[in-house]
Amino acid sequence: MRLRADHVRVRVPATSANLGPGFDALGLALGLHDELEVRALGGPGVRVEVTGEGAGQVPDDESHLVVRALRVALDHVGAPQAGLHLICRNRIPHGRGLGSSAAAVVAGLVAARALVSEPGVLDDDVVLDLATGMEGHPDNAAPALLGGATVAWTQDGPAGAPSVVRAAALAVHPDVVPVAIVPSVHLSTRTARGVLPTTVPHTDAAFQASRAALLVEALGRRPDLLLPATQDRLHQEYRRAVMPDSLALVDALRARGVAAVVSGAGPTVLVLARRTGAAPDGTVTTDADDAVDAAFGGAMTGWRILPLPVDVTGAQASALG
């Protein structure tokens, strides 16, 4: 396998995982993007330039997550490794439950796909499998790769073969309007997952299955059912100790009839609002607008409200020059 290009551009969306009851399975791509350029160099070495989110904090060498993912993909298809110059323009907040690490992994993998002479060997199934191997779960990687809403799962391979990860697209009703409410504080996924129990009551598991199934219907055809469909008993309450402000906001919004959940591992709160119309300036109005204002009492210190469209395209890569 050889390289067919030496300079590619990649655009990859933020994502929100779980969406309440769909723990480690459901995810949604959001209209907030990291953009990067990757140039394969004739000599050895790695140079990474980062602006925006993570600048001055993420590695600028081989340990950068995009570089690591790109190396994994090139090794997987037997393509030659090369020196790399990486320019990252990051807009996805880090450590906030908006899929920044999955975006970096998917970006590196699809960059490799755009570089190699036979991109078909890194098709979406392969990329998702590789991304899950690096991330540990596919709930963010699937929508980052495919766009829209997705459900991801692991299935057994043929006899004697390893299991594989797959994903399918889910419909999203045009009246569903995601709103990310992003705090200033960070929380690592490891910390958020570390407080989860190893077992849950059978009644909670049954409850969760009903709500996850209902959420598919609510997202695609019945946005009026989003409030009950986003109920969770599997992970959010267990995480209250490590993100009390986020769960307090979820409680306050849900008490006002708004479908609010913890985004991924948090601490961002995701609202799945319903479109109610448009303001005179053309901005979309939703059933959550007044509730969000009331929950904060006019004081938004330390939080950002980001109304974000659903990203329907997922990760995109193209050769340059």
What does this structure look like?
- With 321 residues, the protein is α+β, with helices and mostly antiparallel strands.
- The protein has 9 helices and 12 strands.
- The strands form 2 sheets. Strands 1, 2, 3, 4, 5, 6 and 12 form a 7-stranded mixed β-sheet that branches. Strands 7, 8, 9, 10 and 11 form a 5-stranded antiparallel β-sheet that branches.
- Strand 1 and strand 2 form a beta hairpin.
- Helix 1 packs across helix 2 (100-115) and helix 2 (100-115) crosses helix 3 (124-135).
The percentage helix is 25-40%
Radius of gyration: 20 Å
The major β-sheet equals: 7 strands, mixed
Query: Helix and strand string, N-terminal first?
Result: EEEHEHHHEEEHHHHEEEHEE
The percentage of residues in β strands lies in 25-35%
Tally of separate helices: 9
The global form is globular
Alpha-beta content class: alpha+beta
What is the average per-residue confidence, as pLDDT, rounded to a whole number?
A: 94
The count of β-strands is 12
Low-confidence parts lasting 5 or more residues at pLDDT below 50? Answer: none
Report, as a whole number of angstroms, the end-to-end distance: 21 Å
State the main characteristics.
single chain; 7-stranded mixed sheet; 5-stranded antiparallel sheet; 9 helices; 12 strands
Short description:
30% of the residues lie in helices and 29% in strands. By secondary structure, the chain is α+β, with helices and mostly antiparallel strands.
Helices and strands in order, then pairings?
Layout: E1 7-18, E2 22-41, E3 46-52, H1 65-77, E4 83-90, H2 100-115, H3 124-135, H4 141-146, E5 149-155, E6 164-170, E7 176-183, H5 189-194, H6 202-220, H7 226-229, H8 244-255, E8 260-262, E9 269-278, E10 284-286, H9 289-296, E11 303-307, E12 316-319
Parallel strand pairs: 3-4
Antiparallel strand pairs: 1-2, 1-12, 2-4, 2-5, 5-6, 7-9, 7-11, 8-9, 9-10
Helix pairs in contact: 1-2, 2-3
